Amino acid sequence: MIDLRRLHVLRAVAHYGTVTAAAGALHFTPSAASQQIRQLARELGVDLLEPLGRGVRLTPAAESLLAHADAIQARWEQAELDLRADHGEPAGPLRVSGFPVAISVLLAPMAVRLRERHPRLAVRIQEAAVPESFDLLFEGETDLAVVEATPHNPPLGDARFDQQPLLDDPFDLVVPEDHPLAGRTGVDLAEAAHEDWIAPVPESPCRPHVLSACGEAGFTPDVVHHALDWNVTAHLVANRLGVALIPRLAHLTPHLPIARVHCTGNPHRKLLTCTRRGGRTRPAVVAALAELRELAPTAVA
User: Fold this and answer.
1) Phi, psi of 275 (to 5 degrees)
2) Which residues contact 252 (CB under 8 A, 6 or more apart)?
């Protein structure tokens, strides 16, 4: 009989990439986590980890075992939901996570609606960057996340997660209010090719979208300033320090002397809802997803 606790340690090593990182997430010491995996390997009679430089990697046997482990986790998730089912009525805690813009315009209004329609449901919101939301889902610390699609996310076919499209969030060109492009109903980004640009910081998930949109318009932007917060970006634009692409979901400080102009070609980012595999049918999650689908079209109008 496989010890499921030891199997969970192996899943954590695969998720976090190292024994040390997995141990930290599970509140183990690295030596204790390694011991759990060695014991699992002895029970199964196969090697699960092999040296790779200064680290380790999973063996083919471990990869095969994890495919079954992810299926077991999904079935366990469904079994737990079945046991806790209360005639389909959403009740109990619902833990959700998302990045700041998603919380402001989607998750916070969703929580208000759920509180009014399902008083037995207690929504708990946690701000989290996209990678952290996947970690929280994996660790069982959140039930539903709104994330931005990035090249670094787990693939859509990852057996641990269920990722579904929620909305496309268009990028607008933001310029000073007296800029020649202000007031236009639409603009080709190529018209801003020779401007100074304000771009997201390198670690921002939106930076690749901005650079890709400019690349598709035929130029590489001359990035003079970097910012993490969209309102910081807007203030830099307001002070005539450059132009920027800002997603429409981002609510900017009112009354700034700036103009948002729609872009031809529709550069955008995709937002997804994500649960653990098997967790999307939980009544509380079903209710939350229904509210998000209602909110999404008006959020980007």
Assistant:
1) -130, 170
2) 174, 230, 231, 234, 246, 258
pLDDT digits (tens, 9 = 90+) for 187-200: 999 999 999 999 99
Question: CA 25 from chain center: how many Å?
Answer: 18
Take residue 221 and report the two structure tokens written for it.
């932007």
Q: What is the pLDDT at residue 77? A: 66
Contact 102, 96 (CB under 8 A): no
pTM (2 d.p.)? 0.77
Q: Which two tokens stand for residue 277?
A: 């595999």
Beta strands 55-58 and 161-176, pairing class: unpaired
pLDDT in tens, 53-69: 777 788 888 888 878 87
Can you spell out the DSSP letters for the chain?
---HHHHHHHHHHHHHSSHHHHHHHHT--HHHHHHHHHHHHHHHTS--EEEETTEEEE-HHHHHHHHHHHHHHHHHHHHHHHHH--TT---EEEEEEE-HHHIIIIIHHHHHHHHHH-TTEEEEEEE--HHHHHHHHHTTS-SEEEEE--TTSPPTT-TTEEEEEEEEEEEEEEEETTSTTTT-S-B-GGGGTTSEEEEE-TT-TTHHHHHHHHHHTT---EEEEEESSHHHHHHHHHTTS-BEEEETTPPPPTT-SEEEEEBTT--EEEEEEEEETT-TTSHHHHHHHHHHHHHHHHHT-
- CB count within 10 Å of CB 49 equals 18
Mean pLDDT, range 242-268, rounded to an integer = 96
